[in-house]
Amino acid sequence: MTPQEIIRLRLASQQLAASVCTKPEEVVARLGAMQAQEHGSAKWAIGARLQRAGAGATEAAIDGAVARRAIVRSWPMRGTIHYVAAADLRWMLALLTPRILAGTAERQKRLELDAAVFAQTRKRFSKWLKGGATLARTALLAALDQDGIPTAQNRGYHILWRHAQEGLICFGPHEGKEPTFALLDDWIPLSKSRALEGEAALEELAHRYFTGHGPATLDDFVWWSGLKVSDARRAIARAEKRLARIDGEQAEGRLTYWMAPEAATGKATRPPEIQFLPAFDEYLLGYRNREAQLDAAHAPKIVPGGNGIFLPMLLAQGRIVGTWKKAVKKKGVTVTALPFVPFPPAARKKAAEAVEAYGRFLGLPITLSIG
Predict the structure, then answer these.
(1) What average pLDDT score do residues 233-258 get?
(2) Residues 337-353: b if buried by 16+ CB within 10 A, e if exposed
(3) Non-local CB neighbours of 117 within 8 Å, separated by 6+ positions
(4) With bands split at pLDDT 50, 70 and 90, how would you rate the model's confidence at 270?
(5) Which residues of 153-175 are buried (b: 16+ CB within 10 A; e: fewer)?
(6) C-alpha dist (Å) from residue 69 to 49, 196, 225
């Protein structure tokens, strides 16, 4: 497959070229999980995939999906916060948590977080959040400190993470700029959860990933899911009957790609001229091999210093050609586009048109400057 073919198909699979989704929960379910440690960026990641459906593409619509408990944030994979469809959280946690916990045991030991501490904090969270209550993160951590359970030196983060990983708590709606937490059993009752386990869960995870990210490879799936290679192979083998397979030659040798059958056989969709995607977007982070979307020479500009902080991305026909930043005020938002090489006049015009989608998403007048 050529880089151009990979780009075209990934844009379609990710709902960035011709969306079939009309609700936030449809976008999140299609992609399986969407990275969401930066809350505002995560909401725009969903909204950007609803723009072409012409429905629900506002920040208020994303907040509404959280409030009606259709989507939820937690740590389902790789120890990283993601949005998932509410019905999917439990089976994903059950499938992926054991491997994640094993990888953090030494760190938690150094922090003096053992079974006794987690039993104490579990008891307190169950009491403080009972009856459908939500509490802000700072309030929960302050309450632990007051009860003699220190949260400094990142202990508080690990306590929250551990109990979310084990399915006790999940994120609730934001209070201003601060996240809240709720008991998972209250926020998303078991009756609202999809029942999947074992091999069936593996199959579903593979099907979701390749449907929402394809064409992608085994290595890409292993990176995204955090599964062992052997488990990822089994997942693909079970899901393969529901996927299209393409074998191709690449510089690194023969590679096999999987994707949704409709993506492989559907009408070719022209990539959008210019797009503004958020930080940590699945279009880049959803793959181990990102060379189709991003020239390796420009990678340090997306992740300055290699610190794991991915900047918002500027796309031209699916290639990442720059970054952008925003300044939001009550009366409007100013976006500054920073292309890696100067934009010609035609691209500047397309950028001015494309950025309007972000203004509509925020419900604010928008101004674009191009550096």
Answers:
(1) 88
(2) bbbeeebeeebeebbbe
(3) 149, 159
(4) confident
(5) eebbebbbbbbbbebbbbbbebe
(6) 20, 20, 23
Can you tell me the distance from the alpha carbon of 9 to that of 150, in angstroms, rounded to the nearest whole number? 49
Q: In angstroms, rounded to a whole number, what is the distance separating the alpha carbons of residues 123 and 367? A: 50
> Position of tokens 């690990």?
158
Q: What are phi and psi of 286, to 5 degrees?
A: -75, 5
pTM for this prediction = 0.95
Residue 293 has pLDDT above 80, yes or no: yes
Which pair of structure tokens corresponds to residue 260?
């949704």
pLDDT tens digits, one per residue of 99-156:
999 999 999 999 999 999 999 999 999 999 999 999 999 999 999 999 999 999 999 9
Return d(Cα 353, Cα 270) in angstroms, integer.
Answer: 17
In the block, which residue shows the tokens 């400094």?
152
Q: What is the dihedral of CA 123, 129, 135, 141, to 10 degrees?
A: 0
Cα–Cα distance measured from residue 109 to residue 112, given in angstroms and rounded to the nearest whole number: 5
Query: What does the block give as tokens for 302?
Result: 């997306």
**What tokens does 113 get?**
């977080």
Contact status, residue 282 vs residue 36, Cβ threshold 8 Å: no
